[in-house]
Amino acid sequence: MSDSSLPPSLHTALKDLLGPAGLLTGTDDTASYCTDWRMLYQGRCAAVLRPASTEECAKAVALCAEHGVPMVPQGGNTSMVGGATPDDSGRAVIISTTRMNRIRHIDHGDLTMTVEAGVTLKAAQEAAAREGLMLPLSISSEGSADIGGVIATNAGGNNTVRYGNARELTLGLEVVLPDGNTLNLMRRLRKDNTGYPLRQLFVGAEGTLGLITTAIIQLQPSPRSRETALCAVQSPEQALALFAAFRKHDPSAVLAFEYMSGTSMNLVTTLIDNCTLPLSEPAPAYALVELASTRSDDSLRTLMESVLEQAFEEELISDAVLAESETQRQSLWMIREEHAEAQKRAGASVKNDVSVPLSAIPAFITEATQRCEALIPGIRVAPFGHIGDGNIHFNLVQPEGGDSQAFLSQDHAIMDTVAEIVRKYDGSFSAEHGVGQLKTYMMPSWRGGAELATMEKIKAALDPHNLMNPGKIFPAA
Amino acid sequence: MSDSSLPPSLHTALKDLLGPAGLLTGTDDTASYCTDWRMLYQGRCAAVLRPASTEECAKAVALCAEHGVPMVPQGGNTSMVGGATPDDSGRAVIISTTRMNRIRHIDHGDLTMTVEAGVTLKAAQEAAAREGLMLPLSISSEGSADIGGVIATNAGGNNTVRYGNARELTLGLEVVLPDGNTLNLMRRLRKDNTGYPLRQLFVGAEGTLGLITTAIIQLQPSPRSRETALCAVQSPEQALALFAAFRKHDPSAVLAFEYMSGTSMNLVTTLIDNCTLPLSEPAPAYALVELASTRSDDSLRTLMESVLEQAFEEELISDAVLAESETQRQSLWMIREEHAEAQKRAGASVKNDVSVPLSAIPAFITEATQRCEALIPGIRVAPFGHIGDGNIHFNLVQPEGGDSQAFLSQDHAIMDTVAEIVRKYDGSFSAEHGVGQLKTYMMPSWRGGAELATMEKIKAALDPHNLMNPGKIFPAA
């Protein structure tokens, strides 16, 4: 007990409730929970609670609430914005969902999976795939990110263009509220208009209104065929026009449509082993398109080829390669997935996870590129991302051979420059990653007035003592 | 002024603000606004306000709020549950969105429509269709129901199985809050994780948290081909198995999948002119399936025929007719759309707009049918509806030649009987129609405990004086 700052009566009660495996108090044991994986934040905690069931979790939350102890829900700890890291007061407990990790049921009639919060997204995807079904949510951190966190942050990723974000896939939820009451919204219904859509409120609330313990996820039949192509384009305009061409022919066939700037692609092919450009020469930009269908006929190949042929004729694309095997398909995707790693190896970088309306993407990329290049000579403007749903990771890499610290000292100037153009096009300063603690300062100017005031009213109504994930989403008063 | 019970200072201020076209106070002028179209409720109001813009609406709401006058938002006045009708105190004003009726913009790049609340769903559908686009929400009342009401009640209808409810189609919203502040959530973004998803909260809140004035709707490319078939099946099990067969081959092709009981179909073919069964003989039940594709090839016909052929072989269906022309397609849909009218002509009926998980539909229909037939000898159990999304209109028609009043006197016994089985399968007592005033009494037993308590906290936080659509959703204290 000497190494815990928990009130003694709470410590005793939690130890009785959770047992040795469920309560970590020593600094050594809790240290890894107190830092985010990006190493942006170093917090402290009074303890890490690891309940093994909803019942244990609810009782633990009730005990903490009675003692006025703040609680920080944590899943796979993969937040990009410090959303699951406590502050450095050491007062808060972290509630880890790691031990709530059962896939309870997969239903072939309803196409649903009932799954506990601590199951990783990848484990859930694989369980669905073993049953011939698809969990159509795919993000870079899926090997570590867990279902609870994925839903609490309304994760997006590559397949949003076809299947929506985590929100659209979440049919049912079970949530432990800040006072320890359990909210059972575990209904597997496509239609249910019986009062406020509470389920929707917890998806994307980043754990500030309650802790998600279980979910029912909507699955889809696994695709029988996929067609994947990497295309060289001259500009973001052409990439968007290519997307529109596929969408016009069959929006339901487009599982993913990704954009990669030539600058970012160049970093991948030069800095990542075994990643070579499978096209005859480099281009100003690239589009990676994946079509998928559950039909057994081969019309998907026809669709891909006919759209690409027409795109050649209209000079929308200058080159393209189609995956002829699953291995080739994975190689094309590896090129896409290595952009973050390549940028990391290229030096310091400033990340902007932004979205704009689809139609504004070309103008946004062009203007933001020009402005950043004017701001810092030699800066490598390396955007990539999910152009099919309007989400660009507008990342800026330091000048080659330049000083990293000097570059990073201008991070606010860079972010403000990008943000100004995002704002001009009615976009979002955080498309996928959420607010966490990193972006709370942006809330007043972007979501201020009636919008932030309404959020604050909801927070105060459901968590009047500000005990659940404090310091996230809302700027310090 | 003599015929208005508005406080004089409020009356003057509203008259100045809204002008003669915007303020109705005489009983003759306001009467039609005070009754719901089902004639279940006869309310009274102090005035009908008809603002022509968001600005006028916001100012009018602020004035009413200052005077403590309750407000009832009203769109096309097509609620099935008295959701837009005032109580009989005469204290409330009705705020009609009728004059906010412009389609502001259709964007081909974003596939969006920016539309004011008072535009009817049908007018919005037609505007999209003229541009080669589809607004994929279709409900029986679409000729009168307006966009504001459709979103406020999270309308569903025939295409939910493919495109979701109004919620999934609503990209942006503008809402006047109970205090007269305007909440601008008019972003056209597929990804935007910047705080609580307020937009989601107003979809389905039935006007109790604010008044929707403008929306941005997600459109789709218009289908290039449709295939529609009416199939005879022996049971709900077979209808569901047929749906699963289509879903397995291509879930994205199924635009609608409707169920009709033989009893209900028999009412249509005997009581509605020009509605004959286009099959060789009557069956215990029917499925109407519509496939749609934006692809230009003819593979949709192949898909329809191959699934139906296999269904014949597996004896899932005993007969089927495919529409060979647009006229035939419309005839098949007319048969489906006339079920409500045929039931009306057959005498008194009790309606249950319920949903259960897809996999539970056959058991639900079978058990509920048996129980109702045991309850009232001769009762005509006539379910139909959107089986593809789990939503059945489980309607009961009085015994032929029996006494209507005697039948209706047992409406609670009938509804309770159906509800008990819905509850057994974790279903919803109101799939599409909402709670309104008609079903507030069901909220404590169905959504009680932490769920209703959380809803009440949100209501109190956003509308502390209970001025916005009072008496809806929440049971009287």
From TrEMBL, chains A, B:
Keywords: FAD, Flavoprotein
Keyword Transcription regulation: no
UniProt domain FAD-binding PCMH-type: residue ranges: 41-222
Superkingdom: Bacteria
InterPro entries: FAD-bd_oxidored_4_C, FAD-bd_PCMH, FAD-bd_PCMH-like_sf, FAD-bd_PCMH_sub1, FAD-bd_PCMH_sub2, FAD-linked_Oxase-like_C, FAD-oxidored/transferase_4, Oxid_FAD_bind_N
Protein family according to the UniProt entry: Belongs to the FAD-binding oxidoreductase/transferase type 4 family.
Protein name, UniProt field: FAD-binding oxidoreductase
Organism of this sequence: Acetobacter thailandicus
